[in-house]
Design brief:
- With 284 residues, the protein is of the alpha/beta class.
- The protein has helices spanning 57-64, 87-94, 112-123, 128-141, 158-169, 188-205, 216-222, 240-244, 249-256, 258-266, and strands at residues 17-28, 31-42, 46-51, 72-77, 97-100, 176-180, 208-212, 225-230, 233-238.
- The strands form two sheets. A six-stranded mixed beta sheet has the order 5-6-7-3-8-9. Strands 2-1-4 form a three-stranded antiparallel beta sheet, with helices on one face.
- Helix 3 packs across helix 4 (128-141).
- The longest helix is centred in the last third of the chain and has 18 residues, at 188-205.
- It is globular, with a radius of gyration of 19 Å.
- Residues 270-276 and 279-284 have low confidence and may be disordered.
- The protein binds adenosine-5'-triphosphate.
- Adenosine-5'-triphosphate binds at residues 28, 33, 51, 53-59.
Length: 284
């Protein structure tokens, strides 16, 4: 099927990209997951990655952040290909992104502040009291009360845990934020509040956000463009409006089926409590 130019997964060479994937091939044993996959993510955009279950969304994310080794192809993040970097350069690059994994994955034996300090301990050499101060700033930044810093994950609601995990992903002031199913398991109000927070953070901190989700409301509420993964590659990437015009069975079913139409109709309302607007200087 021919992809229209407006839905090409690659962008013109003069566009400032944060992530560039070319000719990616991945697999496990006899199973091929991606084959000749290309994708560009513009600096400063929120891009959503969708696709049927098992199409390889998480594997793609894991390749981009270096947790899986591709069989072929190149991946550049912020203009650097981690595969060509030495250990010191690779570490410097890894510092520039934050990741919120599917399950949130906070350490249950650590408080929220201690969780946020884990990447600080790994990458920065800071005195403890300064790390505590930074951790509190991150807690406030994601709209949690400062008291949440000394709580354990089990003492928080699901929505608060997601925010705490987001605070940890932001610990090192990343340029790129990877979110894997960030609203999974949240009620619609908490999910809408989280969507709102992601947009506010992107706008405030000039982040590039790479977001995997099955949540159509999240796609509508947050994403500038959406990339569709099918048959091992990105078959289309563009605005939801443009994708709705794309004559592909899965894309049509996804965006123009009953749930897709409902998401358009019900565009989630912002939360009753406004999300705190973090200032850039607060996190400088
Ligand atoms: N470490 C691994 N070893 C072997 N197979 C794997 C591994 N990780 C993922 N896979 C396989 O790769 C395929 C893609 O998995 P992935 O988790 O990326 O799918 P997904 O699109 O994120 O799915 P979902 O939407 O259900 O989360 C699946 O068939 C999965 O079983």
């Amino acid at each position: 099927m021919q992809t229209p130019a407006a839905l090409s997964p690659t962008l013109p060479s003069d566009v400032d990209v944060a992530i560039r994937v070319r000719g990616l091939e991945t697999g496990f044993g006899a199973q091929t997951i991606h084959k000749d996959l290309d994708l560009d993510v513009r600096r400063g955009e929120i891009i959503g990655l969708v696709g049927g279950s098992g199409t390889g969304k998480s594997v793609l994310l894991r390749c981009i952040i270096g947790l899986e080794t591709p069989r072929a192809g190149t991946i550049e993040v912020l203009g650097r290909d981690a595969a060509t970097l030495d250990a010191v350069e690779g570490r410097a690059l890894r510092r520039r992104w934050g990741v919120l994994f599917q399950e949130g994955a906070l350490f249950s034996a650590l408080t929220v502040a201690e969780n946020i300090e884990v990447p600080m301990r790994e990458f920065l050499d800071l005195p403890l009291d300064l790390m505590d101060e930074f951790a509190k700033l991150k807690v406030r930044m994601v709209g949690l009360p400062e008291e949440a810093a000394c709580k354990f994950p089990s003492e928080l609601s699901g929505g608060m845990r997601k925010r705490a995990a987001l605070a940890r992903a932001l610990a090192l002031d990343p340029l790129v934020l990877f979110l894997d199913e960030p609203t999974a398991g949240l009620d619609p109000i908490a999910a809408a509040a989280f969507d709102d927070l992601v947009r506010v953070l992107r706008d405030t901190l000039d982040l590039t956000v790479f977001l995997i989700t099955h949540d159509l409301d999240t796609l509508h509420a947050t994403c500038d463009r959406v990339a569709v993964l099918s048959d091992g590659l990105v078959i289309a990437c563009g605005t939801i409006e443009a994708l709705r015009e794309f004559d592909h069975p899965w894309v049509q079913e996804y965006f123009s089926g009953p749930r897709g139409r409902a998401a358009v109709r019900s565009q989630r309302k912002p939360p009753a409590q406004p999300t705190p607007q973090p200032s850039k200087t607060e996190f400088a």
